[in-house]
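Input.
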Amino acid sequence: MFDEIEKRTGLTVNDLVKMMEFFKQTDFQKEQELRAFIRKVSQTAKKPISKKTENLIIQTYESFQNDSKMYNSRKRRNS
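Output.
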């Protein structure tokens, strides 16, 4: 199984474990930490991303968070 993951992603099991540890320590509510996580994933995967793409990921994440908050707020009011 790990061989297949490594073949498809180019990431070793060790890379994945390190990324998961970094993931667990990241506070995604803080934009700077989210940006650091995005850069770490990019570096680990050896797939550079532009600042424009990084900004788009941040905007998408923030939009998702806002939509999620709005959905949960409506859900609580209707309960």
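The mean pLDDT is 85.
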